[in-house]
Amino acid sequence: MIAPGTSAPPSLKRSTLHGWRFVALRHLLWALLRFLVGYRIEGLEQVPSEGPLLVVSNHLHNADPLLVAVAIPRPLHYMAKKELFAVPVLRRLITYFGAFPVDRGKADRNAIRLAEARLADGFAVGMFPEGTRSATWTMQPAHPGVALLALRSGAPVLPVAVTGSERLPGNTTKGRRRDSRMWARRHAVRVVIGTPFFVPRERDGRKVTAEAATALIMGQVAALLPPEYRGVYGDETDAQD
Questions:
Q1: Does residue 3 belong to any structural domain of this protein?
Q2: Tens-digit pLDDT profile for residues 186-210
Q3: What CATH number is attached to the domain comprising 131?
Q4: Which helix H or strand E contains 101, and what residues bound it?
Q5: How many domains are there within the chain?
Q6: Which residues of the chain have pLDDT under 50?
């Protein structure tokens, strides 16, 4: 269990984006996104200002890591596919922004350990548990890594929902949802931040399984989404209601 007041080590803080540089860049990107795509954020008051935090979101577009990172008013460290770290210039850039590698083709225990260490050092860690962008714009089954991390670390989970990014260009092979009326109004992209919660390690005297913890976490994300986005987690939302 991670102590809520844990602070980040000076060495990692020095080597990653933080402080006034982070604040300035975040506000610049926020203004740019508002102008370009009608970017809106709801629930900013829900984000804890310090301590470990596991930020969990659905995944629609390549731009989602940026959209969620701008919505969170503190540095957010992501798992990034290991292939990105093979390019020296790109490796230095994404490492500065707090990224660390994950092998998406398997259960990467090392990536989980790195994420757990970041949480133990008081950082916010961002995850897209579906593992890849949804080609149907609806939620797909999540990998159990997020549940294992939540259970092992004891860090609070912050559910986040992204809508509208599937309409943006540049989504490569995943396709693009077209809605000219919404795009013309420039109210295309919205990030909704939910209430932080803890994943219980036991329930009714029994140990909570990774499967049950995954369903709980993704159900909280789905509850922030319109029904047409909830996909396989629509039933989890109904159960919570």
A1: no
A2: 558 999 999 999 999 988 888 999 9
A3: 3.40.1130
A4: strand 100-102
A5: 1
A6: 3-8, 180, 182-185
